[in-house]
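Long-time lurker, first post. I've been practising inverse folding by hand and with some scripts of my own, and I keep getting stuck on stretches where the structure tokens seem ambiguous. Below is the full token string for one chain I'm working on. Before anyone asks, I'm not after the true native sequence, just a reasonable design that respects the backbone. If someone could post their per-position residues I'd love to compare against what I wrote down in my notebook.
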């Protein structure tokens, strides 16, 4: 959590942001997952052209993991969207999560 904007017992107006989440770790995980997708896709491309069956299977497994990571980003976005609806997350946090998901989706759309 980055900041808490209310104290126990405070009266708050509808729409007031109650807290802001720190998404530094989530952003780092997204960056690592995006890198993993690129690497897996390159390895699959190489294995498809001159690799063994075992290399193709390993590459397919790496891509499957990258898709799982992308799905987690989608889940994170959904959670932030719900938190925003209750005032517990900012619009910028949701927009940032949407951008990360869009980026991940574009990396795995070919597979």
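-- Answer (accepted) --
I ran through it position by position. Result:
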């Amino acid at each position: 959590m980055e900041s808490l904007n209310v104290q126990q017992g405070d009266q708050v107006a509808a729409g007031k942001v109650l807290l802001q989440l720190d998404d530094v770790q989530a952003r780092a995980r997204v960056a690592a997952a995006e890198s993993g997708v690129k690497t897996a896709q390159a390895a699959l491309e190489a294995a498809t052209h001159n690799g063994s069956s075992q290399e193709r299977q390993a590459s397919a497994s790496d891509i499957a993991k990258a898709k799982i990571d992308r799905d987690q980003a989608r889940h994170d976005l959904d959670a932030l969207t719900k938190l925003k609806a209750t005032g517990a997350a900012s619009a910028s946090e949701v927009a940032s999560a949407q951008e990360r998901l869009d980026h991940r989706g574009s990396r795995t759309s070919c597979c």
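A couple of notes from the structure itself: The helical segments are 24-50, 53-85, 91-108. The first helix runs from residue 24 to 50. Happy to go over any region you disagree with.
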